[in-house]
Design brief:
This protein is an all-alpha fold and about 450 residues long. The protein folds into two domains: about 170 residues, no CATH class; about 230 residues, Alpha Horseshoe (Serine Threonine Protein Phosphatase 5, Tetratricopeptide repeat), CATH 1.25.40. The protein has 18 helices and no strands. α7 packs across α10. The protein starts with a helix and ends in a 42-residue tail after the last helix. The relative contact order is 0.06.
């Protein structure tokens, strides 16, 4: 028996603690001894009776063990003491209540029927006797097998429930509590981020101070992905409002927000952050043309990693920035400057909508003094099929980490910025904030009013 216990203990130690392995080994060893006893009892019979008695004994013993295990589980289920008082949910305790009811019923019925237990056990033993060979000792042995394995099953299940199930339930409750705490903290961070950004974009009347760029960056970094989408769109709306009203002060309020979004996007997956900041730097007073060129170039670089082409307004605005940076006022520009501007204008001309903007200052005057023909820009060829000025469904899919077809809106990479198209689609259809372009709207083909020299919106 000691050797058997030691062998079982060595098998269990790899998965359990020493104390747990000890009592499991003892109870399992007792079950093995019971099986050996059944086989020894069956050995006194001859022929096929040996197998019949042994099989019946093992099956009856196993059933008794499972019955005892069920009782042990019901008696051993721990009770939760924590009660939800803050409006939150608490763990379901129906199993605890059922266990409590059944335990009381079993104990009550057992006490009431205790006087009849002897006769009942005698009748039960007679029922078991044929399965154990039908001899004089069969009834008593059968009853012993039932009681033996029922006790083993009860103890094994009861101790497992008390020693191992209880800590697991406590751990599950702790995990739930931490998840709730984390959700509460994220909600607080989101509220703080929205409040901080709102004070920056729409400062209340009489406000004596605004959040610093570091405050904005810290708040945006801690915000959740859906809230970053709201922050991005709020900053875009503020920039456009200042641009349309030719109010540089209003437009510049969005600059630290776009910088914060860029800082929060450590993987640099969202090109619109850079493009929108480039528009601000290009259109504010005084303009930061080197900064605008850097931001627009970065936006194009990130866009091309996802899907080359599309978002042709990036090249269009970069061409304008380079024209405004061109130190040559009269005559032709330097060869390299002319080449880079022509390259951007050629990309912009491929988009049916953006090519309509090439007739606006300062592009015609620059083309005239640099002798840039329509053929050189591809303007003499028929307009290509309508394509988005801002991107396609494949871009959206790439942002989401998915294949280009079929496009699917997703949380994750797309959740931080499922960006609407800058301006309008070439077809005149506004882009949905969370997916591919919607169907073209029936509207006038006339362009929205723009401030002179402004080309960052359409």
């Amino acid at each position: 028996m000691k050797r058997l216990v030691g062998w079982l203990r060595s098998l269990l130690k790899s998965a359990d603690s020493a104390e747990t392995a000890e009592w499991k080994a003892v109870l399992l060893a007792a079950a093995v001894v019971g099986v050996v006893g059944i086989v020894a009892f069956a050995a006194q019979f001859s022929g096929t009776d040996v197998v019949s008695v042994a099989t019946s004994g093992v099956i009856i013993g196993g059933a008794s063990g499972l019955g005892g295990a069920l009782l042990g589980f019901l008696f051993g289920i721990p009770k939760s003491t924590a009660k939800a008082t803050d409006g939150s949910y608490q763990p379901n305790t129906n199993l605890e209540e059922i266990s409590d009811w059944l335990t009381k019923i079993l104990v009550g019925v057992g006490l009431v029927q205790l006087g009849r237990a002897t006769k009942a056990l005698g009748k039960f033993a007679k029922v078991l006797a044929p399965a154990f060979g039908g001899r004089a000792a069969s009834a008593g042995f059968g009853l012993a097998v039932v009681v033996y394995f029922a006790v083993c099953g009860f103890l094994l299940s009861y101790l497992w429930t008390r020693i191992q199930l209880t800590p697991e339930l406590q751990l599950a409750d702790l995990v739930d509590k931490r998840i709730d705490q984390k959700a509460d903290q994220q909600n607080q961070s989101d509220a703080a981020a929205l409040s901080t950004v709102n004070r920056q974009l729409s400062p209340p009347g009489g406000a004596t101070s605004q959040p610093t760029p570091d405050d904005i960056a810290d708040a945006v970094t801690k915000a959740s992905a859906p809230v970053k989408v709201q922050i991005f769109q709020a900053a875009v709306d503020t920039r456009r409002t200042g641009w349309r009203n030719q109010d540089s002060a209003v437009m510049e309020r969005s600059e630290p927000v776009f910088r914060a979004l860029i800082s929060a996007d450590s993987d640099q997956r969202f090109h619109r952050n850079f493009a929108q900041l480039g528009y601000v730097l290009k259109d504010k007073t005084p303009a930061d043309l080197p900064g605008a060129l850097q931001m627009l170039s970065k936006a194009i670089e990130i866009r091309d990693k996802l899907e080359p082409g599309g978002w042709a307004l990036y090249e269009f605005n970069r061409a304008i920035v380079r024209i405004r940076q061109d130190p040559t006022v009269q005559g032709q520009s330097a060869t390299d400057v002319r080449a880079t501007i022509v390259a951007d204008l050629k990309v912009a001309a491929k988009d049916p909508y953006v090519r309509t903007l090439l007739a606006e200052d300062p592009i015609p005057a620059w083309r005239q003094r640099n002798q840039v023909t329509d053929d050189e820009l591809g303007l003499s060829a028929p307009a290509p099929p309508a394509a988005s000025t801002g991107g396609s469904s494949a871009t959206v899919a790439a942002l989401a980490g998915q294949a280009a077809a079929p496009p699917q809106p997703a949380a994750g990479a797309l959740a931080q910025q499922s960006e609407p198209v800058e301006g309008r689609e070439a077809t005149g259809a506004p882009r949905s904030p969370a997916g591919p372009p919607t169907a073209p709207a029936q509207e006038s083909p006339t362009l929205p009013t723009r401030a002179p020299g402004d080309h960052s919106d359409t």
